[in-house]
């Protein structure tokens, strides 16, 4: 059974850099911790002015995009030790951020439902008209097209020009969506939601075609799906909820690693050998690809 949550310790995000040099951990304590992707040692701690919600590594450089509350969202060039703030029209901040496949564009979706597109220098390129009444909570670009999925009250797909390509509801009852990631093939994407225990709606993990065709639906988690991550080769999906679960691309459960508290951040190492998770009570763990803990990190 999961331990009582301590909201002062939540680590929302865990993200592995594409070249395996680093993984970054961020959470409510306003800190971004950079660990070595090889030795798992803590390398540095970057102070932020506000709570870290989500992060995204550039596909070609060690540049980290950070979505944070308030005015704390930024782009950090780790190698150059430089920071560029994302200066938008509001100070509410956001929790959805992602680079496109080439690293030329950064999509940032905020708490007010607005989506902005930036270049890697942090210059605003485009603002996409608000299409929903609640916060955006997750975003991910197609692996080869300049199109992205954004989650809020619905599933929406836009192109980089701001054109709405498709919109659909993921279940009959309105349940908060939390995470999305395209499969590396670009044929479909996975999403996870919060569920609703009061109404006995189980948290769902779903696989969707971009035209709105449901491929697979799974309802075995006892807690919300906070984050998910496909391995680089697309053979395995890792999900963070009441346990670390590893699935194949068809939605078959391959391995399950239980956790003493709810998992929030999750990401694969580039070679697919390891998974990093962060949790409600501030635990950072490295797992192997069979969902076995091999190291718990101290910081």
Overview of the structural elements:
This protein has a four-stranded antiparallel beta sheet, with no helix packed on it. The protein has a four-stranded antiparallel beta sheet with strand order 5-6-7-8, with no helix packed on it. It has a four-stranded antiparallel beta sheet with strand order 9-10-11-12, with no helix packed on it. The radius of gyration is 17 Å and the shape is globular. With 299 residues, it is mostly beta strands. The protein has strands at 13-16, 22-26, 31-36, 42-47, 52-57, 63-68, 74-77, 82-85, 94-99, 106-110, 115-118, 124-128, 138-141, 147-151, 155-159, 164-168, 177-182, 189-193, 205-208, 214-218, 227-230, 236-240, 243-248, 253-258, 263-268, 274-279, 284-288, 293-297.
Topology:
Layout: E1 13-16, E2 22-26, E3 31-36, E4 42-47, E5 52-57, E6 63-68, E7 74-77, E8 82-85, E9 94-99, E10 106-110, E11 115-118, E12 124-128, E13 138-141, E14 147-151, E15 155-159, E16 164-168, E17 177-182, E18 189-193, E19 205-208, E20 214-218, E21 227-230, E22 236-240, E23 243-248, E24 253-258, E25 263-268, E26 274-279, E27 284-288, E28 293-297
Antiparallel strand pairs: 1-2, 2-3, 3-4, 5-6, 6-7, 7-8, 9-10, 10-11, 11-12, 13-14, 14-15, 15-16, 17-18, 18-19, 19-20, 21-22, 22-23, 23-24, 25-26, 26-27, 27-28
């Amino acid at each position: 059974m999961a331990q009582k949550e301590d909201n002062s310790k939540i680590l929302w995000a865990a993200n592995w850099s594409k070249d395996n040099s680093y993984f970054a951990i961020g959470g409510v304590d306003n800190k971004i911790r950079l660990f070595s992707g090889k030795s798992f040692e803590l390398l540095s701690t970057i102070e932020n002015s506000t709570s870290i919600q989500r992060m995204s590594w550039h596909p070609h450089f060690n540049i980290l995009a950070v979505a944070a509350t308030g005015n704390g969202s930024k782009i950090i060039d780790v190698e150059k030790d430089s920071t560029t703030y994302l200066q938008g029209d509001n100070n509410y901040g956001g929790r959805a951020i992602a680079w496109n496949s080439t690293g030329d564009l950064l999509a940032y979706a905020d708490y007010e439902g607005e989506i902005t597109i930036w270049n890697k220098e942090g210059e605003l390129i485009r603002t996409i008209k608000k299409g929903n009444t609640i916060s955006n909570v997750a975003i991910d670009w197609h692996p080869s097209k300049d199109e992205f999925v954004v989650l809020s009250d619905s599933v929406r797909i836009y192109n980089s020009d701001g054109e709405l390509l498709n919109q659909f509801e993921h279940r009959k009852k309105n349940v908060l969506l939390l995470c999305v990631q395209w499969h590396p093939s670009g044929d479909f994407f996975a999403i996870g939601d919060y569920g609703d225990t009061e109404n006995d709606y189980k948290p769902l993990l779903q696989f969707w075609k971009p035209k709105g065709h449901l491929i697979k639906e799974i309802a075995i988690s006892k807690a919300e799906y906070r984050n998910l991550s496909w391995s680089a080769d697309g053979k395995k999906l890792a999900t963070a909820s009441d346990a670390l679960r590893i699935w194949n691309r068809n939605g078959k459960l391959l391995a399950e690693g239980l956790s003493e508290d709810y998992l929030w951040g999750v990401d694969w190492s580039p070679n697919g050998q390891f998974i990093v998770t962060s949790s409600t009570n501030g635990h950072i763990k490295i797992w192997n690809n069979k969902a076995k803990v091999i190291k718990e990190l101290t910081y």
